[in-house]
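Give me the fold.
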Amino acid sequence: MKKLLGWVGFYLLVAAIILYSVFPFYYAIVTSLKAGSQLFSVEYFPTTWNWDNYVSVFREQPFAYNLLNSVLVSFSVVALSLFFGVTAAFALGRVQFRGRGLLLMTVLAVSMFPQVAVLSGMFELIRGLGLYNNLLGLVISYMIFTLPFTVWVLTTFMRDLPKELEEAAIMDGASPWEIIVKVFMPLMWPALVTTGLLAFIAAWNEFLFALTFTLTNTQRTVPVAIALISGASQYELPWGNIMAASVIVTLPVVILVLIFQRRIVSGLTAGAVKG
């Protein structure tokens, strides 16, 4: 009886967590399918399927450009973060040199600063490089909070790989780059998927830098575009359009997590248990 009550309590807790996590997104979907006065009525199940809000999002503002900007920036950040993260992880995890631990702690310490603390410095850097209102400026600025985490996780993972693999590759005449690409990377896919997806989510959802470093609608990413959606007057917000845009922006992240969920779990738990 006690075991049965334990299982019932466990599943009730899981159900409560799922409901708490999923319900806001579900209600956003329901709201995005409403129009007019229906937006202000509380309904937990859609009675009508009105797709006008989704059409209006693309018709009334350059939302397609904003989506494309977010895709380009996010995938560029992921590619650069993984490239620099893997090469830095090889140096920090496999090469012995003085000050390695201090350097790794310094890399991690960079991620402890809030965005607003480095905003003015990043603005001067972006403006000095001539990248204001440029997607490349967003890519460079996003690296400041995606790269430290990527380097730290990949270094921990690479440090646990068997040394015999590296020694065998060196005996076969492999260069350091060949060891990274042909020996280590095939074994690091769970960690690469995990860090890459987390870097993608961070870049996809980032708001403060995107708001500060872009000026025109055609250069803005989707979080800023959603925040700047306005109605006929300053006191009237098109909540239907905002909910529709939020659903469109959230779906890619949900799909990616569902596709790579097994590798994400493997990457997060890798190295937790050693034989």
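The chain has a mean pLDDT of 84.
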